[in-house]
Design brief:
There is one protein chain. With 595 residues, the protein is of the alpha/beta class. The chain is built from 23 helices and 20 strands. The strands form 4 sheets. It has a 6-stranded parallel sheet, with helices on both faces. Strands 11-10-9-12-13-14 form a 6-stranded parallel sheet. Helix 12 (268-276) packs antiparallel against helix 14 (351-372) and helix 15 packs across helix 22. The protein is globular, with a radius of gyration of 25 Å. The relative contact order is 0.10.
Length: 595
């Protein structure tokens, strides 16, 4: 058995387990580990970020495009704490990331050494990580590291994906032991989890009796690589398909059976078809309030009386927000394929139902065109998206920030292949998109990767555009500049008719904005600012065809409406608002079905 330090054990194991990149900042608490990455036997490319949060977001974006985890490493204390937003985003969206942080030397715990949290219990950071990780470990001996590492990969790669956290004290990184590095293949189960045959038969029976069925695809459809199986079921049984935030890209949006998206910022066809369905087949969907219009009956779903067939790899989600007629705990691909094989050979025509869907989609397209094709300047949120869709190939990856841009892309920018739409859906973290886009491009170097986000989101991690230059990762960043958090302002205005803290202004009230094109150039990116409608498409085309890191600033009207809101979201209205908004809020809240 080789004699290896703790840092060498981790570095060699990461390489043996197929980790392609490590991202982070090598603060003093992780030196002995990052030094081992320089050894020939364990050399892995290291992506130096400019904020530890971004290391986790970058790894998150990489996983979403590849289905393979990478590692983020940081020091103790502040460096470790900065990973929390990244882990929380990955946890909410069920993406696998390995987060390794340093820890106080075991012989110094509780002494309040530099960056230790010790006032409640000694070395308390792991307790912080508990709430935002699927599993976490604190290694206390060098010889237990091989076990801890294969357990962490087992956790990430089986069942429901999620981030894992491993804390390695500084002395454990530096000291050595005789160890055997474990073969990961011998520590993982073989194959996928098949559904119970009785559950499949019951689901097929419910679906056979359906007159207005709909399939809801969530993020689990994408991470479970079940897109082809969903397409097969939809075509075999003539079932319309709707998507959630993270389910977008699981089903081709130019397919006649695609109905749209669901939820508050869903689409009118998507909400309409799903709300009128008598049978709902949910695949890898946890029915968040965003996607279910806060469970108000008849807005996005009507469960019950609609019957729910709920497929999820995590039993925790079955029955959590809606009662299931048939709950199936299984791999999404296996479950959907089994249900399809259990259906009769003859495909139902559903002529009236599908004609209604086509009419809804035609009406929606006319509605979209008003904003997407508008030449007003500054632009609507939708106008640049229409131009991008014309330019980009079908397999291009779009990485989307939070706020108005997120909803506008959901409604306006069609995607056609799995893992080509990435967004921080469940946690909706601002600051996620820029580093996640770098990770996406590392994972899909052959694809065009465009990051579209608002200026408020961009400013949270703007410095990470440098990664495109320092690592030769040609991402195109499209910054929709409306000088503020306009999505938040819109919600405030709707709720109380006033707003606070949402506009970027000079003391006199004039809009304040940095020169984003100049900022991009200062970081070494090819950069442009669009000065009018005629420049939009040519400028975007130049940026994409440059095959270089690029930034395009797109002036966006503060008062141009963001995405439509055909669904509902439970925003409690303050008691001092006594007009029709208070009445409407309580009427709609009374329709919520989740309790």
């Amino acid at each position: 058995m080789p004699v290896l330090t703790g840092g060498q054990i981790v570095a060699r194991t990461l390489r043996n387990y197929g980790v392609d990149y490590v991202a982070g900042i090598p603060g003093h608490g992780i030196w002995s580990l990052t030094d081992a990455l320089l050894d020939q036997e364990s050399r892995i490319p290291f992506i130096q970020v400019f904020h530890e949060q971004s290391a986790v977001h970058l790894a998150d974006g990489y996983y979403r495009t590849t289905g393979r985890p990478m590692a983020a490493v940081t020091s103790i204390g502040a460096g470790a704490s900065n990973t929390v937003i990244g882990m929380a985003t990955a946890f909410a969206d069920s993406t696998s990331v390995l987060v390794v942080t340093g820890g106080p030397p075991t012989h110094m715990r509780g002494h309040g050494l530099l960056q230790e949290l010790d006032r409640y219990t000694a070395n308390d950071f792991p307790k912080v990580a508990e709430a935002v990780s699927k599993r976490h470990w604190v290694a206390t001996r060098v010889d237990e590291l091989p076990f801890v590492l294969h357990r962490s990969f087992n956790s990430m790669l089986t069942g429901r994906p999620g981030p894992v956290h491993v804390e390695i004290p500084m002395d454990v990184q530096a000291e050595s032991a005789d160890v055997s590095l474990h073969d990961l293949a011998a520590r993982l189960p073989v194959g996928r989890q098949y559904p119970d045959p009785e559950a499949v038969d019951r689901a097929a029976a419910v679906l056979r009796a359906a007159e207005r069925p709909v399939i809801v695809v969530g993020g689990g459809t994408v991470s479970g690589d079940a897109g082809q199986e969903v397409l097969g079921l939809a075509e075999r049984w003539n079932v319309p398909v709707v998507t959630t935030w993270n389910g977008k890209s699981a089903f081709p949006e130019d397919h006649p059976l695609f109905a749209g998206s669901v939820g508050q910022t869903g689409t009118i066809p998507g909400n309409g078809i799903a709300a009128a369905a008598d049978v709902v087949v949910a695949v890898g969907c946890r029915f968040t309030d965003w996607s279910a219009s806060s469970y108000a009956q008849g807005v996005s779903f009507s469960i019950p009386p609609a019957k729910l067939i709920h497929i999820d790899v995590d039993p925790h989600e079955i029955g959590k927000n809606y009662p299931a007629e048939v709950g199936i705990v299984a791999d999404a691909r296996c479950a959907v394929a089994a249900i399809t094989d259990s259906l009769p050979a003859a495909t139902p025509a559903r002529a009236e139902y599908l004609t209604h869907l086509a009419t809804l989609k035609e009406d929606w397209e006319r509605k979209l065109a008003g904003r997407r094709d508008s030449n007003r300047f500054p632009f609507t949120s939708q106008r640049p998206l229409g131009a991008l869709r014309k330019i980009l190939p079908r397999d291009a990856v779009i990485v989307v920030g939070s706020g108005n841009t997120q909803g506008a892309v959901k409604q306006t920018f069609p995607v056609y292949e799995p893992r080509t739409h990435l967004t921080s859906g469940g946690f909706s973290s601002m600051g996620w998109a820029v580093p996640a886009a770098v990770g996406a491009k590392l994972g899909r170097p052959e694809a065009d990767v465009v990051c579209v986000l608002g200026d408020g989101d961009f400013l949270m991690t703007a410095q990470e555009i440098a990664l495109s230059v320092t690592n030769d990762v040609p991402v195109v960043y499209v910054v929709q500049n409306n000088a503020g958090y306009m999505s938040i302002r819109g919600g405030q205005r709707k709720q109380t008719s006033r707003h606070i803290g949402t506009e970027f202004n000079h003391p006199g009230g004039e809009p304040y904005s940095p020169d984003y094109a100049a900022l991009g150039k200062a970081f070494g990116l090819r950069s442009w600012r669009v000065e009018g409608p005629d420049e939009l498409e040519p400028t975007l085309r130049k940026a994409i065809e440059s095959r270089a890191p690029a930034l395009v600033e797109v002036p966006t009207d503060r008062d141009a409406a963001g995405p439509w809101t055909p669904g509902w979201w439970d925003f409690p209205v303050p008691a001092y608002i006594t007009d029709e908004r208070q009445d409407e809020y309580h009427r709609t809240r009374a329709r919520e079905q989740h309790l």
